[in-house]
Amino acid sequence: MKAAKDLRQFHNIIDGKLVPASAGETMDSIDPATGKPWSTIPLSTTNDVDSVVKAASKAFPAWSALPARSRADYLRQIGDALSEHGEELLTLETRNNGWTLDPYQYLNIVLKQIWYDAAGAAPIVGAQGKTVQMGTGNFGYTRREPYGVVLGILPWNAGLFSFTIKAAYALAAGNTVIIKPSEHAASASLRYGEILSEILPPGVVNVISGLGSEIGDVLVGHKQVNKVSMTGSKQTAEMITRASAPVPKSLIFELGGKSPNIIFEDADINQAVNGVINGIFTRNAGQICAAGSRILVHRPIFDRVIGKIKEHMTDPENVKYGDTLDTTNTMGPIANLPQYRKVCSYLQIGKEEGAELIFGGRTGGEVLLPDDPHYSDGYWVEPTLFKTDNNKLQICQEEVFGPIAVAIPFDDEEEAVRIANDTDYGLASGVWTQDLKRAQRMTEKIEAGNVWVNTYAMVGPDLPFGGFKESGYGTDTVLEYTREKACVINFN
After folding, report:
1. What three-state secondary structure class fits 56?
2. Which range, of 53-62, 139-148, 302-311, 368-377, averages the lowest pLDDT?
3. Which one of 126, 260, 315, 472 is at 20 to 30 Å from 210 when CA atoms are compared?
């Protein structure tokens, strides 16, 4: 194991400067593929919170006063800079969360495009107001204005994406930004903030790391923080809501899901099977909020579909583990030890509940094929599929956030809708059918913020991404980062 002095050190980004935690405390970041430390991050305190909020507040007047096209120029510069720094950032992200990333897809299709889209949206904000006839001599109109200081709280599974989508649109609208990454995956975000600080004016984007239990409530409850956008768990959303109650502020919550992937008997079976596999058993090991963790299959084709999924997922040529920087490996580990223990517990829960194990179930070093001692202490969980007729099981109702799915048969469209909606969540869903009328009916009846037909997880800046029910509310879009002001001028 590396000594602390040999680990790469990261620092907070406050007012354009690299700053250690005021108390000098750090914590190790663990590579989930090996289970060993590889870097250190600051453990910030309330003193650091005061500094970071002060920096963002001080930068706000000048940033918001810039012409929108000038802000857009900065955002385009950031998009361009990712060509130079992208490989480094993706490497750090992989060391953070264990994802085996497709560099082109993640960097060019996702991250860079968000910055360019936000740059294009910046000049549009001022044109979103409306005029109203208020009667003789009265002219009414509305303005869209930035909130001020926006706090973005990131999850541990997709730090760079969440950082980008929160910061880019908040900046486009004229806000300044504080980013609080998860303590389980902060290194990539700290380096990202450093790169941005070399482009943006000081204090426009700041990044502070530390334990949520130490600085989270203080950040959320700060009087000079005017809006909070959080991607994470329902439990974290509850804590944020309580912490913000004394000083009410606008909140965006993008929370979990227990998303159904529904296959009808008229579907293109091969296309649907690929969509199901990519929706839960891929490079991120099922650690995305939109994971298609419930596979609903029309009973006449149930055995055929499940057989094809099993055939693919039990072929060693299709499922490869190991070095997460090797893009030929198909699936990474669970991102951190607490989550690994949680995922492992659901393997046992599924068996105890009486669900039938179709394939998978192994954990730890026994997953690695061939065995590689360098990765034997990593947080590995094999892609696993259970089968049940009972959607009330814990493994059907609770978000596992790992490569564990449940296959459930249904008899008709009405039953498919009932099972799909029988959950506290409502984030995403997939429908596989060649019947256009059925597709339309399903998009209307499914209670979810996203419904994808004959595809899955098709996301991007062109459409909002939000949830229903306990999956949250609000979206990270440019208008969400503005507030509407009503104005009336009397000419009498």
Report:
1. helix
2. 368-377
3. 472
CA count, 13 A, side-chain hemisphere, 194: 16
Same domain membership, residue 285 and residue 176: no
Per the CB < 8 A criterion, the answer to whether 64 and 146 are in contact is yes
Tokens 């960097």 belong to 107
Residues contacting residue 20 through CB under 8 Å, at least 6 positions apart: 11, 12, 26, 42
Mean pLDDT, range 105-128, rounded to an integer: 88
- For residue 370, the model assigns a pLDDT of 61
**Which residues carry out catalysis?**
254
User: Six-digit token pair at 153?
Assistant: 């709280």
Q: What is the pLDDT of residue 2?
A: 53
- DSSP state, 110? I
How do beta strands 131-133 and 138-146 pair? antiparallel
Do 236 and 89 lie in a common domain? yes
Residue 69 CB neighbour total at 10 angstroms: 10
Strand order of the β-sheet with 450-453 is: 356-359, 384-387, 404-410, 294-298, 260-263, 428-432, 450-453
CA distances from 429 to 279, 293, 347, 414, 469 (A): 10, 10, 23, 16, 14
Q: How many domains does the chain have?
A: 2
CA nearest neighbour of 41 among 219, 188, 249: 188
Domain CATH number, residue 300: 3.40.309.10
Residues 103 and 230 in one domain: yes
Note whether residue 467 is domain-resident. Answer: no
Question: Residue 331: which domain range?
Answer: 260-461
Tell me which H or E stretch contains 298. Answer: strand 294-298
Two tokens at 269? 């079976």
Residue 1 has pLDDT above 60, yes or no: no
Residues facing residue 410 across a β-bridge: 298
Angle, CA 458 vertex, CA 471 and CA 170 arms, to 5°:
65
